[in-house]
Amino acid sequence: MHFFHLLVSAQQTARAFTGTYGINYGRIADNIPSPDKVVKLLRAAKIKNVRIYDAEPSVLNAFKGTGLELVVGLPNGFVKEMSANADHALNWVKDNVKAFLPDTRIVGIAVGNEVLGGSDNEMEVALLNAVKNVYNATKKLGISDVVQISTAHSQAVFADSFPPSYCVFKDGVAQLMKPLLEFFSKIGSPFCLNAYPFLAYTYNPDKIDINYALFQPNEGIVDNKTHLHYDNLLDAQIDAAYAALEDAGFRKMEVIVTETGWASDGDENEPAATPSNARTYNYNLRKRLAKRKGTPLRPKKMLKAYIFALFNEYQKTGQSSEKNFGLFKADGSISYDVGFSGLQDISAASSLLSLKPIFSYSKEQEAFSKSIDRRRTGKRLRKEEMSRGKKKKRKEEKKATWISCCSWCLHDCWCLSWNFGNTGNSSSRVLFVSNSNHNFNIDSAVEVMTTFFDLILYEIPD
C-alpha cells in the first residue's frame, strides 16, 4: 500500500520518491504521538517519503514546510462515490490536496488500497473510473505534474508467484487489471505492490526457509525458466510482479513496493512474529535498499519501498500480528533497534537535517580532498578538449568541503561534499570515505544520506 512515483507532465517526469526508503504512517490507535511529534521523529530518522491512508487535515498541516514528501490515500469507502461522480472527485482533490499545496509536499494520491482481488466486486469494477476521475481532477486543478495517481495491490491479484517467472494475474483479476494498467502506463504511474515475506512464510513455513524470508544467508532458489538466482524472498515477490506485468503486455512498468514489513508479535499460529525476526527483516531490508540495486530480473530498476509501519496500531482488527508491525511503539519508543532513535532520545541538536561543517581537517582529509579536486579538474579539462569547437558551456564552480557525518552510524566517517555553484542545481554530491581499518558502517550511512544527496561511494584501500 505504498506510493512514491515518477510523475509525468507534458514536458517532464517529476520524481516523487527520493532515495529508496519510505514508511507508512497509519493511525488506527488513539495512543500514538501527535502529528507534530511524528514529524520530529521522521526528520530525526531521516525518512523523507511518507504514506498515509487518508487525508487528515491535522497531519497535512503538521507536514507543512517540513520538506517531507507525502502520499495521501483516498480510502476504499470513497471509491464507488468517486467513480460515480466526477464532481465529488474534483471537490475531494481540491479540499484535501490542492488546498495544502505547495507548503505541504503532497506527491501522490493512492486511490483505494488492495481493491482488486478483494471481496467487493462492485468496488473492483468502480476502481478504474475512480482513478480516472481523481486524475482528471488533478488535471483541472493544475497539479497533475506534481501529484501522481496510483493504487496498491496485494499479492492476491496473482494466480501463482512461484517460481517468479511463472507469475500471471488471476483470470478474474486480469480483465479489470489490464485497462487499469493501460491507464497507468499512459500517465506514467508505477505498479504498486504490497509484498510481505512475513505472510508468505507464515502460510508456508514448511516450504520456505525463514533465512530466505529474512535476508539471512541461505542457499536461495533458482528460477528454472530464467535460471536467475534469488537469495531473498522479497526480490522473488517483486520479480513475480514484473513477470505478471510482462505477461499482460506492460514490460516497462516499474514496480514499487508500497508496503513491506515484519510483525514483532502475533497469535499462536504466527510463531515467526517476534521482535528478533522483525528487527532482522527490517534491518536487512534497510541494507538491501541502501545498495540502490534492482532485482535479478530488473537489475537496473532500483528497488524502492515503503516500510509497514511507523507505529504499532492496537485498534486494528484481525490477528495480533496486524497490530504489531510498527518500528515504534505507541509511546514513540523503538520497538527494536534498526538504527533509529525514539522520541525521548530526539533533540534539536541531534536533528540529522542539518549537517554541520568540520572546520579542522586532518592532513589525510585535506590531501584526499585536493586529490579528488585535481582528478575532477583533469576530467573536466579533458571533456573541454574533446568538445573544442562547440559552444562552451558555463563552467561550474565545484568546491570540495568536508562535512561531518550525521552521527547516525555512530562512527567518525569522512564525508566530502561538493557544492555546484550557481548552476541552478541545488543538489550536492557527497562522498563517503573510509579507511579499511576504520569500522565504517556504509549501509547505515548510505541509508541516511541517500534521501537527500546524490551519492558516490569510495573506500580507501590499505
TrEMBL record:
<keyword id="KW-0378">Hydrolase</keyword>
<dbReference type="GO" id="GO:0006952">
    <property type="term" value="P:defense response"/>
</dbReference>
<dbReference type="GO" id="GO:0005975">
    <property type="term" value="P:carbohydrate metabolic process"/>
</dbReference>
<dbReference type="GO" id="GO:0042973">
    <property type="term" value="F:glucan endo-1,3-beta-D-glucosidase activity"/>
</dbReference>
<protein>
    <recommendedName>
        <fullName>glucan endo-1,3-beta-D-glucosidase</fullName>
        <ecNumber>3.2.1.39</ecNumber>
    </recommendedName>
</protein>
<dbReference type="InterPro" id="IPR044965">
    <property type="entry name" value="Glyco_hydro_17_plant"/>
</dbReference>
<dbReference type="Pfam" id="PF00332">
    <property type="entry name" value="Glyco_hydro_17"/>
</dbReference>
<dbReference type="InterPro" id="IPR017853">
    <property type="entry name" value="GH"/>
</dbReference>
<dbReference type="InterPro" id="IPR000490">
    <property type="entry name" value="Glyco_hydro_17"/>
</dbReference>
<keyword id="KW-0611">Plant defense</keyword>
<comment type="similarity">
    <text>Belongs to the glycosyl hydrolase 17 family.</text>
</comment>
<keyword id="KW-0732">Signal</keyword>
<keyword id="KW-0326">Glycosidase</keyword>
